Each structure stands twice: as structure tokens, then as C-alpha cells.
């Protein structure tokens, strides 16, 4: 990969966090998403859908018992979309009473979880292989334009429902804002859009990712990158799993691992279940493309929410203009609810304050003052602080 080793270290180590010194190995450590679901006593299904440009995506489902019963009444379909470098495991990675996927299933909803191209569960294509550089020629533009409609349309077809609830975390919210603003026919199929740690403009990014972005968005770097192309960025592999389960469990390394995590997402560890950290790290990072990382970093400099920047000559060739087209959040016609964290350095409060007035059908906002970016999927208080409002929103706007 073209990413320097120091940058790789900065991004890998945030996910290498301290563990409590427990010699027992958590049985969830080596379980995939389906195994995590089944091990908690829930039914699980695996589905596959092919995008218009040939990527084969994996969807996971916790089917609602009520939705499988005969009769006219059906609980809403809720589609959960993970963030960058992540997978469907995010939604079922905590204990059953702490994971949003299980909590929503217990509420009777038909829960579906997506996996975008290039992550652990979506590494197949009709004619390309992950070893082909062309396979990795994508960013969140393609996630929004191809992956999102393929997944949502498939779910609606399978469930025989006309509309669903979309819950997007971090990059999952980016996909919603970009996809629904440019594809009104897709937006019409969504009853409610819930954005957790919402991301659109990222000009106020903080923490260790800020200097990384300063390096990447340099136009010399962008020109070089666009010329040679990129490949895979941070796949989950044996090395990161070893570091997660062995290295950071050592007393002298523990504090270093903890600090690197907070350098990325914000400083607060009160909500983390330390005993689950090796399990989290066995699923993170789940991989993306280098081009996707460059796309996000470039937006720090431009201070706009836009499509991939090929620079002037490339933009003129691809878009017929010198600058990349912007995504306009104001064009999203879907009822939208947002949840943000006061200590979130990625979905920064300043950027969230810019975003909220752009949302035309804004029905709800909640700021959880002590939440950082990862608390939305890892926090032990999701059952009391986050999920009651989400369930109420779904019951109010989507039933």
C-alpha cells in the first residue's frame, strides 16, 4: 500500500485498546456476525445482493418473529448500516442487552445489517478479485450510489414492504445524506432516517486524524494518488487480531493502547466494557479502500461535502467542471433524526451544528454530552441512553 507506515500505525493503534487482565478467552473473540447472533439465542440469516457495478454484498438479518407470522400487522423493517472500516458485527458485538441490533429485535423489529463493498463480508465481485487494483477503485460515492440502493431494494423485495427505517452510523450516515439527496426514488422508500454520530462536512476534524488529513489532502499527494491508484486500506488480519488479544493485554502497553484510541475518537472511556475490547478488535478494522480514506481527508481541506476530487483536469473529464459536485443535505426529503456526541472528534460538534440546519425534515436531535465517536456502538449504556429514543422514533414515525 502507498500509505506510509507511520500513518498505518496511527490508524491501527486506535483500535488497539487496553483489556482487563483476564486469562480466559472470550468465546466471542473468533465468532463472525452470524455466530455472534446465534450464540445469544437469536435467529440469523445471511443474504447476498449484487450491485449494478458487480460487487456482491453480504447482508445479515435478525428476523422478527412477528414479521414471520401470518396477518396484516407487520413491525417495521430496520436497516442498520455500519461506519468506515467496520462491518455488520458492530450492531451485535456487545452483550445481548447492550447491542442495538438485539435491542431492536427484542422490540419486534425486522433487523437487517448491511456490509459495504470491500469489508470483511463483501469481498466478492462478478469478475474482479480483491487482488485486482480495480476492485478498490471506490469511495463513499460508490457506497451511496450503488451499495445503498442495492441493499435497500433487496431488503424491501424480500420483506414485501414498501418502506423501511434506515439507521446509519458515521459513514453509514454519509451514505444516507449522499444517497437520499441524489436519488429521490430511493429516498421515497425510507420512512425514517436515523443518523448516529452524523457525518457530512468534516472540516473541524480533531485528534490524530487531523494531521493525517493534512498530509493526505496536499494536492501533490492527491495528484500522485490519482495517477497510480490505490488498493486496500487496513483489512482485518491475523496481525491486528494478535495485537488486540495479546499485546495490549500487557500492563506496560495498556495505557499506550488506551491513549491511541482516544486520540482518534475523543477522550472518554467510562462507557466501554473493557472485557469486550479483544472482541471489538477481532472485527476492526474490517477494511476499505485507500481511495475512500483520501476522499474523506480531502474534504477537511475543502470544507465541503462533495464527491471524490480528481483535481481540476480529472474533475473536468469526469464531471464536466473543475470542482467535484457537492452533496446537498437540504435535498434529502426523508424524515431525519440525529444523535451526536459532545466529545466526538470525528462527528465534531461544530460540524454537527453546521449540518442540522441543512436537514429539511428534521424531527429529532439529541446530544449525548459525554459520548465520543465509538460510544454509539460500544457504550454499555446504549439500552438506557440511546435505544429508548430510537425505538420511540420508529414507533412514532414508521408504524
Structural class label:
alpha/beta
| Residue-averaged pLDDT | 85
Q: Strand-and-helix sequence, N→C?
A: HHEEEHEEHEHHEHHEHHHEHHEHEHH
How far the N terminus sits from the C terminus, by CA atoms, comes to 47 Å
Note poorly predicted spans. 1-22
Overall morphology: globular
- Helical fraction: 25-40%
Verbal overview:
The protein has 399 residues and is α/β, with parallel strands linked by helices. Helices cover 38% and strands 14% of the residues. It has helices spanning 5-12, 33-39, 100-106, 140-159, 171-182, 184-187, 209-216, 219-228, 238-245, 251-265, 277-281, 290-302, 311-319, 349-355, 375-378, 382-397; strands at 45-50, 55-62, 77-81, 110-113, 124-125, 164-169, 190-196, 232-233, 288-289, 336-341, 362-368. The strands form two sheets. Strands 1, 2, 3, 4, 5, 6, 7, 10 and 11 form a nine-stranded mixed beta sheet that branches. Helix 4 (140-159) crosses helix 5. The radius of gyration is 20 Å and the shape is globular. Mean pLDDT is 85; it is low at 1-22.
